[in-house]
Every structure is written in structure tokens, then in C-alpha cells.
From TrEMBL:
Domain of life: Bacteria
Span of domain EAL: 24-272
Organism field: Sinorhizobium kummerowiae
Protein name per the record: EAL domain-containing protein
Length: 286
């Protein structure tokens, strides 16, 4: 909608900007129908201890748009976060993931990501409590992943909500650790149960800076008595490094990609043969 009398620059940028805004508005509108039309689904990515045993899964949201196909969460979550849609979607994910995990024969954990919006507007502690009761999932098997952005806006309120959730027996993990501004001070303000080392550091294992940072975070975990999980582990070299450094847990394409849970039926186990089916891969000697 470039102005007829516009100068060259405005004319050059406006059509693209306009297109982008229209796209965004269209996606926001489509997203409103996504839950009721069953376009949202959850894939599950295994988390393993360093010896290779699957200990749980992270629930990751997917949107299969009727005409555009799969739209990644990095695109649609920020759009959902601009309105109360994120509250509704977040609630749906939590309920679905807990219902799913409650049906697994092995007592594996399930990790669910929370948006900062759910802290600001939702009645989060009451929601978690009622979902646990409704689904029958043991609170100890639920882990909620938050990033430090949750703590930035209203630290007091977030800490109080997290405290109530923790009191239910649910664990709280700090996601994407090391990518924010003051992760260390947040570790002091709230008793997290796990730290997830961001995949950007894991990707660069082999460069001395990233190796040093990972070592330091693992040391921090040991000092604080917190388990550390490395995200984005794709290669055996990365795994060997993490094993040598005594990282506690790993998650990444090497262990398994995010997939429909039916693809992981053997890890979830059958009641009878839980024992021998738990291992994802042979242990690797560092
Ligand atoms: P996240 O919570 O840090 O999730 C990890 C992301 O890394 C996932 O991307 C996962 O598919 C990807 N990943 C896992 N292993 C590897 C690997 O070995 N290599 C590479 N390159 N990537 C790997 P995904 O599923 O696209 O999700 C992106 C982000 O969207 C998540 O980051 C999370 O912040 C957000 N998200 C996803 N589902 C939900 C949800 O249900 N609620 C909320 N609030 N956020 C969600
Ligand atoms: Mg996460
Ligand atoms: Mg992460
Ligand atoms: Mg992330």
C-alpha cells in the first residue's frame, strides 16, 4: 500500500512490511481455530541419562496448518503470546502431555515448556494442581521448563507461583541456560531442580570457549547439587565430551528426534518388559 507520492525508500520497504504484517495477522486468526480443529499436536523427545537410559521426554508443540503445512513453534508461539491464545494453548499442552505420560507403563518423566505469558495472566499453580488431579499423573513425574524471561517481568510473582507449583512436588528446570542476561542471579532467587545447557554451547563443543563454558556449568551444577542436562547433542564426539565432563543427562538428535509418542513405544515400555527395553543406545566410553 505504498503512497503514490512516496519517496524511493518508503516504496521499497513498504510492500514487504505490509506482506509480513498481513501474514502475521492471518496466522493469528488461523491459530484461533487450531485447537478446536485438532491441528495442534505434541511430539516427544527423549531425555537420557549419560549411560543411555531414557529417563523421560520433553513435550514439544507442533502446528499442522491446513494449507501451509508445519509451522515451527519459533514462528507461532510468539504470535500466540501476543494474545490470550497462549494461555489456552499452554493449558492444552500441559493437559495433553500429563494425560499421555500418565498412561505410560514406565514411570518416566514428562517435561512441558511454559511461556512467560502463562505466569502473567494465567492462574498457573491452580491449573497445574487441577491437571495433576484430573490426569492422575504423579507430581514427581512432571517437570516444567522455564526460561529466565519468565523471571524478568515480575520476579516476585513468578517466584511465588513457582514456589506453589514446586510445593505440589513438580520439578522446575531452567531451559536455555547461559543465553540470557543474568542466569546466575536467577539461580540464587529460585531453587531450580535442573539446568538445561543451551544447545548453542553444545553445538560448539570443540571450540575452547564453549567447552570451558560447559565445564563451568557442570561444575556449577555439582556445587549446587543440581542435575545438568545438555540440549542439542547430535554427535558421538559431543557425547564423549559430555561423558568425560560428567554431565548428568543428554537430549538431542543423537538420542532421538522429537516424534509422535507412538514411535517411542518401546521406551515407554510395556508393563512386562520394562527392564530390557529402556536402553536407547550402547553406553559410549569417553
Ligand atoms: P526448547 O524448549 O529449548 O526446545 C528444544 C528445541 O531444540 C526444540 O525445537 C527441539 O526440536 C530442538 N532440538 C532438540 N534436539 C536437537 C538437536 O540435536 N539439534 C537441533 N538443531 N535441535 C534440536 P522446537 O521443537 O522447534 O521448539 C523450539 C522452541 O519452541 C522450544 O525450545 C520452546 O522454547 C518452544 N516451544 C516448543 N513447544 C512449546 C510449548 O508447548 N510451549 C511453549 N511455551 N513453548 C514451546
Ligand atoms: Mg524446553
Ligand atoms: Mg532449550
Ligand atoms: Mg529454546
Amino acid at each position: 500500500r505504498a503512497k503514490a507520492d512516496g519517496r524511493g525508500t518508503a516504496r521499497f520497504f513498504e510492500p514487504q512490511m505490509d506482506k509480513w504484517l498481513r501474514e502475521r495477522r492471518a496466522l493469528q486468526r488461523d491459530l484461533q481455530a487450531a485447537i478446536s480443529q485438532q491441528q495442534l499436536s505434541i511430539v516427544y523427545q527423549p531425555q537420557a541419562d549419560i549411560g543411555g537410559d531414557v529417563i523421560g521426554f520433553e513435550a514439544l508443540l507442533r502446528w499442522n496448518h491446513p494449507t501451509r503445512g508445519n509451522i515451527p513453534p519459533s514462528v507461532f508461539i510468539p504470535i500466540a503470546e501476543e494474545s490470550s491464545l497462549m494461555i489456552e494453548i499452554g493449558e492444552w499442552v500441559l493437559r495433553e502431555a500429563c494425560r499421555e505420560a500418565a498412561a505410560w507403563p514406565r514411570k518416566l518423566s514428562v517435561a512441558v515448556n511454559l511461556s512467560p505469558v502463562q505466569f502473567k495472566h494465567g492462574d498457573l499453580d491452580r491449573l497445574v494442581k487441577s491437571v495433576l488431579i484430573e490426569t492422575g499423573l504423579e507430581p514427581e513425574r512432571l517437570e516444567l521448563e522455564i526460561t529466565e524471561s519468565v523471571l524478568i517481568d515480575d520476579l516476585e510473582r513468578a517466584i511465588s507461583t513457582l514456589g506453589h507449583v514446586k510445593a505440589l512436588g513438580v520439578r522446575i528446570a531452567m531451559d536455555d541456560f547461559g543465553t540470557g542476561y543474568s542466569s546466575l542471579s536467577y539461580l540464587q532467587s529460585f531453587p531450580f531442580d535442573k539446568i538445561k545447557i543451551d544447545q548453542s554451547f553444545v553445538r560448539n563443543i570443540g571450540l575452547s570457549q564453549s567447552s570451558a563454558i560447559i565445564r563451568a556449568v557442570i561444575g556449577l551444577g555439582r556445587g549446587l547439587d543440581l542435575p545438568i542436562i545438555a540440549e542439542g547433542v547430535e554427535s558421538t564426539d559431543q557425547l564423549a565430551f559430555l561423558t568425560r565432563e560428567s554431565c548428568d543427562q543428554v537430549q538431542g538428535y543423537l538420542v532421538g528426534r522429537p516424534r509422535p509418542i507412538s514411535d517411542y513405544a518401546k521406551y515407554v515400555g510395556r508393563a512386562e518388559d520394562v527392564e530390557q527395553l529402556a536402553r536407547v543406545r550402547p553406553a559410549i566410553s569417553a
